[in-house]
Design brief:
Blueprint (H helix, E strand, L loop, with lengths): L2 H11 L7 E2 H8 L3 H9 L12 E2 L12 H11 L24 H9 L1
Parallel strand pairs: 1-2
EC number: 2.1.1.63
Catalytic activity: a 6-O-methyl-2'-deoxyguanosine in DNA + L-cysteinyl-[protein] = S-methyl-L-cysteinyl-[protein] + a 2'-deoxyguanosine in DNA; a 4-O-methyl-thymidine in DNA + L-cysteinyl-[protein] = a thymidine in DNA + S-methyl-L-cysteinyl-[protein]
InterPro entries: MethylDNA_cys_MeTrfase_AS (IPR001497), MethylDNA_cys_MeTrfase_DNA-bd (IPR014048), MethylDNA_cys_MeTrfase_DNAb (IPR036217), WH-like_DNA-bd_sf (IPR036388)
Length: 113
Amino acid sequence: MNSLDERVYEVVKAIPRGKVTTYKAIAELLGVSPRAVARALKRNPRPIEVPCHRVIMSDRSLGGYAFGGPEVKRLLLLSEGVRFDEKGKVLEDFIVRDLRSIDKNLWVTSRNT
């Protein structure tokens, strides 16, 4: 596993239960591409400890989920209280777009590694 993967996992572990963030928000925080974030999450060896189901697309759609597909991702999010609109997109109220707002240390860590 590479250091980018571990940096992505640290950010994802900080996303609170009942909230989601986007691949783009993580990418911007870490200074990488959203695809690099997606690749790291696809390799996630600890899906319970690193809740990668809490990461969605910028358009509020679910995107993929290596551990059972988008329907499993949706069920996991529903079980945490995340709600969706009639088109199946996550409601804006559940999205954390500024990751610094959940853990001030993420910003420092991401820029120093």
